[in-house]
Amino acid sequence: MQPLPADPGLRDLVRYATLAANGHNSQPWRFRAHQEDIVVLPDHARRTPIVDPDDHHLYASLGCAAENLTLAARARGLSGEVRFTPEGHGRVDMRPSARGETDLFAAIPARQCSRVAYDGRSVPAGVMRRLAAAAASYGVEGLFVTDDKQMEAMLALVIDGNSRQFDDPAFVAELRNWVRFNPDEAAAARDGVYAASSGNPTIPTWVGRRFFDWLLDKDAENEKYATQIRSSAGIVVFVAARNDREGWFNAGRAYQRFALQATVDGLKHAFLNQPVEVPAVRPALQSLLGIGDRRPNLVVRFGYGPVMPKSLRRSVDAVIV
Ligand SMILES: Cc1cc2nc3c(=O)[nH]c(=O)nc-3n(C[C@H](O)[C@H](O)[C@H](O)COP(=O)(O)O)c2cc1C
Predict the structure, then answer these.
(1) pTM (predicted TM-score)
(2) Each residue of 67-76: pLDDT tens digit?
Protein backbone atom coordinates (compact mmCIF):
# COMPACT_ATOMS: atom_id res chain seq x y z
CA MET A 1 0.00 0.00 0.00
CA GLN A 2 1.17 3.54 -0.85
CA PRO A 3 2.36 5.47 2.23
CA LEU A 4 0.32 8.50 3.27
CA PRO A 5 1.80 11.58 1.48
CA ALA A 6 3.23 14.44 3.55
CA ASP A 7 0.43 16.71 2.34
CA PRO A 8 -2.46 14.25 1.97
CA GLY A 9 -5.57 14.97 -0.06
CA LEU A 10 -9.10 13.76 0.64
CA ARG A 11 -8.59 10.49 -1.25
CA ASP A 12 -5.40 9.66 0.68
CA LEU A 13 -7.07 10.21 4.04
CA VAL A 14 -10.23 8.32 3.09
CA ARG A 15 -8.13 5.36 1.91
CA TYR A 16 -6.75 5.06 5.46
CA ALA A 17 -10.23 5.42 6.96
CA THR A 18 -11.62 2.56 4.84
CA LEU A 19 -9.03 0.11 6.17
CA ALA A 20 -10.96 0.09 9.45
CA ALA A 21 -12.85 -2.95 10.74
CA ASN A 22 -16.55 -3.05 9.91
CA GLY A 23 -19.38 -5.55 10.34
CA HIS A 24 -19.51 -8.23 7.57
CA ASN A 25 -17.06 -5.99 5.66
CA SER A 26 -20.16 -4.30 4.21
CA GLN A 27 -18.28 -0.99 4.42
CA PRO A 28 -21.43 0.92 5.44
CA TRP A 29 -19.81 4.35 5.09
CA ARG A 30 -19.48 7.37 2.86
CA PHE A 31 -17.18 10.36 3.21
CA ARG A 32 -17.85 13.99 2.34
CA ALA A 33 -15.29 16.80 2.36
CA HIS A 34 -16.22 20.21 3.70
CA GLN A 35 -14.10 23.35 4.04
CA GLU A 36 -12.59 22.34 7.38
CA ASP A 37 -13.58 18.76 8.01
CA ILE A 38 -14.31 15.35 6.52
CA VAL A 39 -17.68 13.90 7.46
CA VAL A 40 -18.16 10.15 7.91
CA LEU A 41 -21.77 9.30 6.98
CA PRO A 42 -23.75 6.04 7.18
CA ASP A 43 -24.56 4.22 3.94
CA HIS A 44 -27.93 2.75 4.82
CA ALA A 45 -27.96 0.68 1.63
CA ARG A 46 -25.21 -1.41 3.27
CA ARG A 47 -27.05 -2.17 6.49
CA THR A 48 -27.21 -5.76 7.77
CA PRO A 49 -30.72 -5.64 9.25
CA ILE A 50 -30.91 -9.22 10.51
CA VAL A 51 -27.73 -9.36 12.58
CA ASP A 52 -27.86 -5.63 13.34
CA PRO A 53 -31.51 -4.48 13.45
CA ASP A 54 -30.86 -1.23 15.35
CA ASP A 55 -27.70 -0.26 13.39
CA HIS A 56 -25.48 -0.71 16.46
CA HIS A 57 -22.73 -2.36 14.39
CA LEU A 58 -23.18 0.17 11.59
CA TYR A 59 -22.43 3.08 13.95
CA ALA A 60 -19.58 1.14 15.60
CA SER A 61 -18.12 0.64 12.11
CA LEU A 62 -18.37 4.39 11.42
CA GLY A 63 -16.47 4.91 14.68
CA CYS A 64 -13.72 2.54 13.52
CA ALA A 65 -13.35 4.52 10.26
CA ALA A 66 -13.43 7.86 12.10
CA GLU A 67 -10.64 6.70 14.41
CA ASN A 68 -8.41 5.77 11.47
CA LEU A 69 -9.18 9.15 9.89
CA THR A 70 -8.23 10.91 13.13
CA LEU A 71 -4.93 9.06 13.38
CA ALA A 72 -4.09 9.74 9.72
CA ALA A 73 -4.99 13.44 10.07
CA ARG A 74 -2.87 13.88 13.21
CA ALA A 75 0.06 12.13 11.58
CA ARG A 76 0.04 14.85 8.92
CA GLY A 77 -0.40 17.90 11.14
CA LEU A 78 -4.21 18.16 10.98
CA SER A 79 -6.43 18.37 14.07
CA GLY A 80 -8.35 15.06 13.72
CA GLU A 81 -10.77 16.12 16.50
CA VAL A 82 -14.06 14.21 16.11
CA ARG A 83 -17.56 15.53 16.79
CA PHE A 84 -20.58 13.21 16.60
CA THR A 85 -23.50 15.25 15.24
CA PRO A 86 -27.21 14.90 16.10
CA GLU A 87 -27.84 13.52 12.55
CA GLY A 88 -25.49 10.63 13.35
CA HIS A 89 -22.44 11.79 11.40
CA GLY A 90 -18.82 11.87 12.57
CA ARG A 91 -17.20 15.22 11.68
CA VAL A 92 -13.41 14.98 11.70
CA ASP A 93 -11.66 18.35 11.94
CA MET A 94 -9.02 18.87 9.24
CA ARG A 95 -7.67 22.25 10.34
CA PRO A 96 -3.89 22.52 10.76
CA SER A 97 -2.60 21.50 14.17
CA ALA A 98 0.48 20.04 15.82
CA ARG A 99 1.76 16.91 14.08
CA GLY A 100 1.40 13.78 16.20
CA GLU A 101 2.42 10.71 14.27
CA THR A 102 1.94 7.63 16.41
CA ASP A 103 2.71 3.95 16.17
CA LEU A 104 -1.06 3.37 16.08
CA PHE A 105 -1.21 5.28 12.79
CA ALA A 106 1.63 3.21 11.35
CA ALA A 107 -0.26 -0.01 12.21
CA ILE A 108 -3.38 0.89 10.18
CA PRO A 109 -2.46 -1.06 7.00
CA ALA A 110 -1.38 -4.17 8.94
CA ARG A 111 -4.42 -4.49 11.27
CA GLN A 112 -6.73 -7.35 10.37
CA CYS A 113 -9.13 -9.77 12.03
CA SER A 114 -7.60 -13.27 12.26
CA ARG A 115 -10.42 -15.81 12.66
CA VAL A 116 -8.15 -18.78 13.33
CA ALA A 117 -6.58 -20.59 16.29
CA TYR A 118 -3.75 -18.78 18.07
CA ASP A 119 -0.73 -20.33 19.80
CA GLY A 120 -1.94 -20.30 23.42
CA ARG A 121 0.75 -17.93 24.74
CA SER A 122 -0.33 -15.40 27.35
CA VAL A 123 0.34 -11.68 27.01
CA PRO A 124 3.00 -10.04 29.23
CA ALA A 125 1.76 -7.54 31.84
CA GLY A 126 3.36 -4.53 30.11
CA VAL A 127 1.54 -5.30 26.85
CA MET A 128 -1.74 -5.89 28.74
CA ARG A 129 -1.40 -2.42 30.25
CA ARG A 130 -1.01 -0.85 26.79
CA LEU A 131 -4.02 -2.80 25.48
CA ALA A 132 -6.11 -1.71 28.46
CA ALA A 133 -5.11 1.93 27.96
CA ALA A 134 -6.02 1.80 24.26
CA ALA A 135 -9.40 0.14 24.95
CA ALA A 136 -10.32 2.69 27.64
CA SER A 137 -10.84 5.56 25.21
CA TYR A 138 -13.76 7.98 24.70
CA GLY A 139 -15.56 6.95 27.89
CA VAL A 140 -15.63 3.28 26.83
CA GLU A 141 -14.71 0.58 29.33
CA GLY A 142 -12.64 -2.38 28.17
CA LEU A 143 -13.44 -5.36 30.39
CA PHE A 144 -10.74 -8.01 30.10
CA VAL A 145 -11.29 -11.71 30.71
CA THR A 146 -8.15 -13.83 30.95
CA ASP A 147 -8.71 -16.54 33.55
CA ASP A 148 -9.61 -20.02 32.29
CA LYS A 149 -12.90 -20.30 34.15
CA GLN A 150 -14.26 -17.01 32.80
CA MET A 151 -12.95 -17.78 29.31
CA GLU A 152 -14.92 -21.07 29.40
CA ALA A 153 -18.01 -19.15 30.53
CA MET A 154 -17.53 -16.77 27.57
CA LEU A 155 -17.13 -19.74 25.24
CA ALA A 156 -20.47 -21.16 26.44
CA LEU A 157 -22.16 -17.84 25.57
CA VAL A 158 -20.51 -17.70 22.13
CA ILE A 159 -21.70 -21.25 21.41
CA ASP A 160 -25.21 -20.46 22.62
CA GLY A 161 -25.36 -17.32 20.43
CA ASN A 162 -23.75 -18.99 17.43
CA SER A 163 -26.15 -21.96 17.61
CA ARG A 164 -29.16 -19.65 17.72
CA GLN A 165 -27.84 -17.65 14.75
CA PHE A 166 -27.18 -20.80 12.69
CA ASP A 167 -30.71 -22.02 13.48
CA ASP A 168 -32.15 -18.78 12.09
CA PRO A 169 -32.65 -19.01 8.29
CA ALA A 170 -32.78 -15.20 7.97
CA PHE A 171 -29.38 -14.85 9.66
CA VAL A 172 -27.87 -17.54 7.43
CA ALA A 173 -29.33 -15.94 4.27
CA GLU A 174 -27.92 -12.52 5.19
CA LEU A 175 -24.50 -13.97 5.98
CA ARG A 176 -24.48 -15.90 2.68
CA ASN A 177 -24.91 -12.61 0.79
CA TRP A 178 -21.79 -11.18 2.38
CA VAL A 179 -19.48 -14.20 2.03
CA ARG A 180 -17.04 -14.04 -0.90
CA PHE A 181 -16.31 -17.67 -1.72
CA ASN A 182 -13.15 -17.38 -3.88
CA PRO A 183 -10.45 -14.88 -4.90
CA ASP A 184 -12.22 -13.84 -8.13
CA GLU A 185 -15.45 -13.07 -6.34
CA ALA A 186 -13.59 -11.19 -3.57
CA ALA A 187 -11.60 -9.17 -6.13
CA ALA A 188 -14.72 -8.28 -8.11
CA ALA A 189 -16.79 -7.16 -5.11
CA ARG A 190 -13.99 -5.75 -2.93
CA ASP A 191 -16.34 -6.09 0.05
CA GLY A 192 -17.80 -8.90 2.16
CA VAL A 193 -16.07 -11.57 4.20
CA TYR A 194 -13.54 -13.45 2.09
CA ALA A 195 -13.63 -17.20 2.95
CA ALA A 196 -9.84 -17.57 2.88
CA SER A 197 -9.32 -14.76 5.39
CA SER A 198 -11.34 -16.86 7.87
CA GLY A 199 -9.19 -19.91 7.16
CA ASN A 200 -11.97 -21.56 5.09
CA PRO A 201 -11.43 -23.31 1.74
CA THR A 202 -12.32 -21.35 -1.39
CA ILE A 203 -15.04 -22.80 -3.65
CA PRO A 204 -16.84 -21.73 -6.85
CA THR A 205 -19.41 -18.99 -6.26
CA TRP A 206 -22.35 -21.05 -7.56
CA VAL A 207 -21.50 -23.91 -5.16
CA GLY A 208 -21.23 -21.49 -2.23
CA ARG A 209 -24.51 -19.71 -3.03
CA ARG A 210 -26.49 -22.89 -3.62
CA PHE A 211 -25.07 -25.09 -0.86
CA PHE A 212 -24.11 -22.54 1.82
CA ASP A 213 -26.76 -23.74 4.32
CA TRP A 214 -25.74 -27.32 3.70
CA LEU A 215 -22.00 -26.56 4.02
CA LEU A 216 -22.56 -24.64 7.25
CA ASP A 217 -22.03 -27.14 10.05
CA LYS A 218 -23.12 -25.72 13.40
CA ASP A 219 -21.31 -28.30 15.53
CA ALA A 220 -18.08 -27.96 13.54
CA GLU A 221 -18.27 -24.16 13.82
CA ASN A 222 -18.86 -24.39 17.56
CA GLU A 223 -15.87 -26.69 17.91
CA LYS A 224 -13.79 -24.19 15.98
CA TYR A 225 -14.85 -21.47 18.42
CA ALA A 226 -13.81 -23.69 21.33
CA THR A 227 -10.34 -24.18 19.81
CA GLN A 228 -10.05 -20.52 18.93
CA ILE A 229 -11.04 -19.25 22.38
CA ARG A 230 -8.96 -21.82 24.26
CA SER A 231 -5.89 -20.85 22.21
CA SER A 232 -6.40 -17.11 22.82
CA ALA A 233 -4.68 -15.12 25.55
CA GLY A 234 -7.82 -13.24 26.51
CA ILE A 235 -11.11 -11.62 25.56
CA VAL A 236 -12.05 -7.97 25.89
CA VAL A 237 -15.61 -6.67 25.98
CA PHE A 238 -16.17 -3.01 25.09
CA VAL A 239 -18.91 -1.22 27.04
CA ALA A 240 -19.70 2.37 26.06
CA ALA A 241 -20.92 4.98 28.54
CA ARG A 242 -24.17 5.47 26.60
CA ASN A 243 -26.48 3.10 24.79
CA ASP A 244 -27.15 5.29 21.76
CA ARG A 245 -25.63 5.94 18.33
CA GLU A 246 -22.89 8.11 19.82
CA GLY A 247 -22.01 5.45 22.40
CA TRP A 248 -21.87 2.74 19.69
CA PHE A 249 -19.70 5.03 17.53
CA ASN A 250 -17.35 5.54 20.49
CA ALA A 251 -17.21 1.78 21.12
CA GLY A 252 -16.00 1.40 17.52
CA ARG A 253 -13.35 4.09 18.04
CA ALA A 254 -12.11 2.40 21.22
CA TYR A 255 -12.02 -1.04 19.53
CA GLN A 256 -10.03 0.42 16.62
CA ARG A 257 -7.42 1.87 19.01
CA PHE A 258 -7.23 -1.44 20.87
CA ALA A 259 -6.82 -3.38 17.60
CA LEU A 260 -4.08 -1.06 16.36
CA GLN A 261 -2.24 -1.29 19.70
CA ALA A 262 -2.55 -5.09 19.54
CA THR A 263 -1.08 -4.96 16.02
CA VAL A 264 1.83 -2.80 17.22
CA ASP A 265 2.51 -5.39 19.94
CA GLY A 266 2.48 -8.32 17.49
CA LEU A 267 -0.93 -9.64 18.57
CA LYS A 268 -3.82 -10.88 16.44
CA HIS A 269 -7.49 -10.51 17.30
CA ALA A 270 -10.98 -11.47 16.11
CA PHE A 271 -14.56 -10.61 17.05
CA LEU A 272 -16.86 -12.97 18.98
CA ASN A 273 -20.01 -10.89 18.87
CA GLN A 274 -22.67 -13.59 19.11
CA PRO A 275 -23.43 -12.87 22.81
CA VAL A 276 -24.08 -9.18 22.06
CA GLU A 277 -25.93 -9.81 18.80
CA VAL A 278 -28.47 -12.33 20.10
CA PRO A 279 -30.80 -10.53 22.53
CA ALA A 280 -31.64 -13.79 24.36
CA VAL A 281 -27.96 -14.31 25.26
CA ARG A 282 -27.11 -10.72 26.24
CA PRO A 283 -28.41 -10.90 29.86
CA ALA A 284 -26.08 -13.84 30.63
CA LEU A 285 -23.13 -11.79 29.31
CA GLN A 286 -24.20 -8.80 31.40
CA SER A 287 -24.34 -10.97 34.49
CA LEU A 288 -20.98 -12.63 33.75
CA LEU A 289 -19.37 -9.19 33.44
CA GLY A 290 -21.30 -7.71 36.38
CA ILE A 291 -22.42 -4.69 34.37
CA GLY A 292 -26.10 -4.67 35.37
CA ASP A 293 -28.28 -3.58 32.48
CA ARG A 294 -25.53 -1.69 30.61
CA ARG A 295 -25.24 -2.84 27.00
CA PRO A 296 -22.05 -4.70 26.07
CA ASN A 297 -21.06 -3.48 22.58
CA LEU A 298 -18.28 -5.59 21.11
CA VAL A 299 -16.51 -8.83 22.12
CA VAL A 300 -12.97 -9.45 20.85
CA ARG A 301 -10.47 -12.24 21.54
CA PHE A 302 -6.73 -11.69 21.21
CA GLY A 303 -3.49 -13.65 21.22
CA TYR A 304 -0.49 -14.61 19.10
CA GLY A 305 -1.37 -16.06 15.71
CA PRO A 306 -0.70 -16.14 11.97
CA VAL A 307 -1.12 -13.42 9.35
CA MET A 308 -4.15 -14.22 7.14
CA PRO A 309 -5.14 -13.14 3.60
CA LYS A 310 -6.50 -9.59 3.74
CA SER A 311 -10.14 -8.59 3.32
CA LEU A 312 -10.42 -6.13 0.46
CA ARG A 313 -11.96 -2.66 0.36
CA ARG A 314 -13.87 -0.85 -2.39
CA SER A 315 -12.11 2.03 -4.14
CA VAL A 316 -12.14 5.41 -2.44
CA ASP A 317 -14.09 6.81 -5.41
CA ALA A 318 -16.96 4.49 -4.49
CA VAL A 319 -17.24 5.99 -1.00
CA ILE A 320 -16.57 9.70 -1.51
CA VAL A 321 -19.80 11.69 -2.04
C1 LIG B 1 -19.11 -3.62 14.60
C2 LIG B 1 -18.38 -4.82 14.07
C3 LIG B 1 -18.93 -6.09 14.24
C4 LIG B 1 -18.24 -7.22 13.78
N5 LIG B 1 -18.75 -8.47 14.04
C6 LIG B 1 -18.03 -9.55 13.69
C7 LIG B 1 -18.45 -10.85 14.09
O8 LIG B 1 -19.46 -11.01 14.78
N9 LIG B 1 -17.70 -11.92 13.73
C10 LIG B 1 -16.55 -11.78 13.01
O11 LIG B 1 -15.89 -12.78 12.72
N12 LIG B 1 -16.12 -10.55 12.63
C13 LIG B 1 -16.82 -9.44 12.95
N14 LIG B 1 -16.36 -8.20 12.63
C15 LIG B 1 -15.11 -8.08 11.84
C16 LIG B 1 -15.38 -7.78 10.40
O17 LIG B 1 -15.95 -8.90 9.74
C18 LIG B 1 -14.07 -7.34 9.72
O19 LIG B 1 -13.64 -6.14 10.30
C20 LIG B 1 -14.26 -7.14 8.23
O21 LIG B 1 -14.55 -8.36 7.59
C22 LIG B 1 -13.00 -6.55 7.58
O23 LIG B 1 -11.88 -7.37 7.80
P24 LIG B 1 -10.57 -6.84 8.55
O25 LIG B 1 -11.00 -6.30 9.89
O26 LIG B 1 -9.67 -8.02 8.64
O27 LIG B 1 -9.99 -5.73 7.70
C28 LIG B 1 -17.02 -7.06 13.08
C29 LIG B 1 -16.48 -5.78 12.91
C30 LIG B 1 -17.15 -4.66 13.42
C31 LIG B 1 -16.54 -3.30 13.29
Answers:
(1) 0.97
(2) 999 999 999 9
